[in-house]
Write a structure and sequence with these properties.
Number of helices: 1
CATH architecture: Sandwich
Strand order of the largest sheet: 3-1-10-5-8
Length: about 170
């Protein structure tokens, strides 16, 4: 009987190796021709004088590519005070991942509040006036211009910080 064990052992090893190769081929991650883009997530934090309807991200995109289609979103603002407000915005983020590559434009109506790189939006914008109980919408556009380097797979979470100041009434 000992003469039958070596061929069985060889057959067992061969079938085990064949099964392992089959499993490796069956569960491999398929190659993709799709370009991995940059990811951007923008949230807004507002002071008590301004109501922003969403607490989560109002802009979320995972496939921004250099020269590709821009991402767009809107941020509605409501003045909840008894007087007019001047509202300013700026970007806050924990990392500098896409500071120079990512471009943002903030508009209110036809007025451009800010346009430039993410790094440039770390400074406050000019004021946006919200009348008493008034509403306005800030339109946000995010894109990466053609020729930008080192953006593949990068991620950034941006907090759009709002600051509001009550406009003092003019003395008569």
């Amino acid at each position: 009987m000992t003469w039958a064990i070596p061929p069985i052992r060889t057959a067992g090893i061969a079938s085990g190796l064949a099964l392992a190769a089959l499993l490796v081929l069956a569960f491999r991650v398929p190659a993709s021709s799709e370009l991995l883009g940059a990811g951007v997530r923008i949230t807004a934090t507002a002071p008590g004088e301004v109501h922003v309807p969403t607490t989560g991200a109002f802009l979320r995109v995972n496939k921004l590519t250099p020269g590709g289609k821009p991402a767009r979103a809107t941020l509605p603002l409501t003045n909840v005070t008894r007087g007019p407000l001047n509202v300013r915005l700026r970007a806050r983020m924990a990392s500098h991942e896409l500071d120079r590559a990512l471009h943002l434009e903030l508009r209110e109506g036809s007025r451009v509040l800010a346009s430039g790189t993410l790094a440039g939006l770390r400074r406050w914008t000019g004021p946006l006036r919200l009348e008493q109980a008034g509403e306005s919408t800030v339109r946000v556009r995010a894109w990466i211009p053609a020729g930008a380097d080192d953006t593949v797979g990068r991620r950034v979470a941006v907090r759009l910080e709002l600051d509001a100041n009550l406009v003092k009434a003019a003395r008569r």
